[in-house]
Amino acid sequence: MKISTVCLFVATLLVLAVISCGDDRPRFNADIEKPVHRSPSPAPSMADADPRTQDMVFIPAGEFVMGSIDKNVSEDEKPAHTVFINSFYIDRHEVTNSQYQKFIRATGHPAPCVDKPWAAPYNWHGTEYPEGKGDYPVVLVSWDDAQAYARWAGKRLPTEAEWEKAMRGNLVSKPYPFGDRLEMSHANFNKGFLRHNALQPVERFAPNGYGLYDMAGNVWEWCQDWYHESYYTISPSHNPAGPPEGVYRVLRGGAWVNDKEFLRCSQRGKNVPDGKSHIIGFRCALSVEEQRLNQPPSTPSALEKNLTAGTAHTPNERSR
Question: Residue 216 carries which DSSP code?
Fold first, then answer.
């Protein structure tokens, strides 16, 4: 099994910050700068009876601008494009050690453990997580581990588009989930000598506009999609679910070891599916259609088909 080290992981994701001056400003596209706004829809009342959604947040269907309008960002964040996403639920916070423990005890799935010195503080011993860390995000989990947990919980991993829509918290074209700036009270990230310097429990920092915690910082989070650097140039406008195949899976959100540039809403990361790290965790999602029909979540290969078949509507169709 391939194990990504911290140095290799950070080097892969490194983005050079370019300081603009004079007329060298980010360019804006009028068509995407002012997307159609919709009033948030109430969560379906039947969700109250579904234990899967008890600690999840309802994200209403609608458009948002995915990617970045800043010309200085990495090419894989371009072009910014308007995407329509069906309504869905997403976990309020990252999956914790105590939640993951129930999964491995119920299924016999291998516990998080990596035979490397840097992993020692995060390694489990049998089915026991590190002492006193029950409300910390589970780490040292591969994409395959995260997928297995999500299926066991009757959920799935969020698509990259769902994840970015949720992270933005209903803000339009802002670099961070809290607006134009990111403060130390907003997220767990590295800010030089002011860094928090360690993984933190979930819900320690402020929630975003949707009431979601740690969408920026703490740990990178696995998404359902395969990664491709130019996917945005061919991405469908309704419920994109990533390319059909690839080498890497998408990571989002940044981690406590990263500078704030890595915590931007449009920042994309990646790692091999069997890669494990002390700065990678995950959270789960569930589409409203899956929840209403009490269906098991879609497999990765069927996800895009299920999201778009029969339930996707253009904004014009929904307003008729």
Answer: S
Q: How many CB atoms lie within 10 A of CB 65?
A: 24
Tokens of 173: 């074209």
Give the number of other CB atoms < 10 A from CB of residue 97: 23
Rounded CA-CA distance 215/64 in Å is 17
For residues 135 and 84, give the distance between their C-alpha atoms in angstroms, rounded to a whole number.
34
CA distance 241 to 287: 13
Determine the topology of domain 51-287 in CATH: paralog of FGE (formylglycine-generating enzyme) (3.90.1580)
The model's pTM is 0.79
> pLDDT tens-digit profile of 109-121?
999 999 999 999 9
State what percent of residues in the chain have pLDDT above 90: 69
Q: Which two tokens stand for residue 103?
A: 């999964």
Residue 296: count other Cβ atoms within 10 Å of its Cβ.
11
pLDDT tens digit sequence for 73-130: 999 999 999 999 999 999 999 999 999 999 999 999 999 999 999 999 999 999 999 9
Antiparallel, parallel or unpaired: β 88-91 and 285-287 = antiparallel
On whether the CB atoms of residues 42 and 294 are closer than 8 A, the answer is no
Tell me which of 22 and 3 has the higher pLDDT: 3
| Sequence spans of domains, the chain | 51-287
Q: Of 162, 170, 173, nearest to 91 (Cα)?
A: 162
In whole angstroms, give the CA distance from residue 121 to residue 99: 19
CB atoms within 10 A of CB 73: 22
The answer to whether residues 236 and 202 touch, using CB atoms and an 8 Å cutoff, is no
Nearest CA among 179, 202, 161, 166 for reference residue 307 = 161
Alpha carbon 294 to its chain's center: 24
Contact status, residue 273 vs residue 157, Cβ threshold 8 Å:
no
pLDDT tens for each residue of 205-245: 999 999 999 999 999 999 999 999 999 999 999 999 999 99
